[in-house]
## 1
Amino acid sequence: METIVISRHIGLVQWLVLHGHVNPDVTVLAHATPEVMRGRKVIGVIPMHLACHAREVWSVDLPNLPLELRGKELTPEQMDQCGACLVGYKVMTIENWHDIIDETGVNYY
């Protein structure tokens, strides 16, 4: 399965390579479209309406990011200091939310 990175942050891509999550020649795009995401493993911050087109969506979470660093370009070292970790998700479109039954078999809707 092909992996692509959707990000405008060079530090994020460097962090992914340094930690062995992607190859240095990984495809990096600034913007996501359903066509480029379809069937692929995608790493980035992706809106739900686009994430549902990917096979897998992975986000780099920064649980200890201080307020003063939000919205700033971070180095891989800063990302490590902020507790950076890769977290995977499977996202799908649900046509009728009334039909959703949780893992215990209970329909709460």
## 2
Amino acid sequence: MDASVLALAFTPDGEFLAGATASMVMIWKVGEYFMPRAKWTRMPHPGWLSPKSTGNADDVEDVHCLCWDANGEKLAYGANSRVS
């Protein structure tokens, strides 16, 4: 990965691992780390700016989180006060 991993979450059954950077979320099958199974890139959008952001590219989001649902079928990603 080109950027620091800011959040990690395993599915409840431990089969998959999601990792988030400031701009992307990737999902790997445990034991198959050479290529992610899925990849989502967050496009720049004013709705994603933190309430404390000034809109500058230098603004840094400092809180990132990932959480799977109880069945391991849906993944939520949040950055500061925004959720996807």
